[in-house]
Amino acid sequence: MHEVAKQLDLNPNRFPIFAALLGNHILPDEDLASFHWSLLGPEHPLASLKVRAHQLVLPPCDVVIKAVADYVRNIQDTTDLDAIAKDVFQHSQSRTDDKVTRFKRAVAYYSATNKPMPFHPPHYLGKFTIFIGGEGGSLLFLLADLLLCFWTYPKHFIFYVLLQAEGSSSASSGSQAADVKGNQTSNPQIPCLLSMPTRNHMDITTPPLPPVAPEVLRVAEHRHKKGLMYPYIFHVLTKGEIKIAVSIEDEANKDLPPAALLYRPVRQYVYGVLFSLAESRKKTERLAFRKNRLPPEFSPVIIKEWAAYKGKSPQTPELVEALAFREWTCPNLKKLWLGKAVEDKNRRMRAFLACMRSDTPAMLNPTNVPTHLMVLCCVLRYMVQWPGVRILRRQELDAFLAQALSPKLYEPDQLQELKIENLDPRGIQLSALFMSGVDMALFANDACGQPIPWEHCCPWMYFDGKLFQTKLIKASREKVPLIDLCDGQAEQAAKVEKMRQSILEGLNFSRQNHPLPFPPPPAMPFYPASMYPRHFGPVPPPQGRGRGFAGVQPIPSQGGKLEIAGTVVGHWAGSRRGRGGRGPFPLQVVSVGGPARG
């Protein structure tokens, strides 16, 4: 390491502080961005790159290394870590105490690993020798030292040292290489650091994350360690990033969007729930109103999403903004997770349904949508609402519902004996999209405080790929009626009808807009106060939705249903053309009472 110290003009005793201030797995680059830019100063030629839209650009590695080395060299007392941290994070706008703690941990980490290794595996020693320097080929590192160096310090630091050593004199090819090439000498040049391709995500950082209540973090950490929560929730809360799983997708199929894009709006709402976006902004607006001031501009909450799909490299993250619900103010995460009142339970369910764009009364009616099938119906309803080309056709929707209600789903032996001659390629992609949606629904459910118990979320309770293929082949290729799709069970067919009506409630497919990269969030209606007990009361009827009426109206021939306080208590049939509200006339709804909207 003496050559490293020589190139940097730095005492080896200061290496732990130097390595900690470069950025690492304990104290990431993003937390040191302000410090690195402050070392360069506003007059530096690169200062104009500091702010680019919502992204903060980090200085190049070689510039950072030189600046940090100069800073560490001039530290008066290297033992006073509190004073150093105070100076380093003087421009920090959030989580200063956490950054100071991480800085001390990083220094301790590098101080410990800077000591001689107690054991060197013999098969790693003496195999290679790296020569960098003049014609004499002065020895810089043995492989053991190089491995220790790579293990101990950030990689861009080591690359920088090697390049600096190379810059003083070019390396010779050596006698063996000269013999092989016919006595033709060559001077291989290591490319300049700035000319080498760099990972783009190293130059991208995001605005600071909003603070999260300590109680929430403790609960999140406990559930994360015990495996009781979606694995990326804790990572989103603490790191502000998430990795999207890869699914089976056909790049040649333009009808079906990538799963990462299809369910991105779900994740955006979940991010808003996790960081209590709606309530924090509402409090700020109220405070500004009381002080007779204009509401301030809110800095966006940006999450890094790592995903791979057609046209998108997995090497760089996408910056996705968190969204808040439009129609109501979701309570903060502490209330959602730790609240014990009945109203808190209702809010959890409403937040989950709003994330899945399924906040309708029918989804809360156990007669139409059994609790263990709610995740299934929410995902299917979300897929149906994708703007542009319709993802789910009528027969495909029926196939999903029929297999979920089939008794064979609970008979492993019968599923094992199922034989499918020709798999439907579209069915495979739909299955993959659906399971990606289930994954996002579980993400939303855990983020909203788990309103749906885990025993009702298990995918094997409502989906089997082989069984779905058999139903889809019957529905799409053989065009069998619904009763045959349900194996002749009239009761099962009636349940499929009810579930389909609940999924399609309030949706209009008369117009198909062009597909949007980020579909706008729909208006989220209010639903009954509780999922299980229904409360009745003389509350005025809803306004502005066009779904209910102020009083009882004449019953037209197309059929309809009766609602009391938002709960469906009766149905009546109509003519065939108006059945289910899919004919030229909408389904008549008579609503008596119900909670006020807003």
From TrEMBL:
Domain of life: Eukaryota
A GO CC annotation given for this chain: nucleus
UniProt region (Disordered), positions on chain: 575-598
Stated name of the protein: Family with sequence similarity 120 member A
Provenance organism: Cyanistes caeruleus
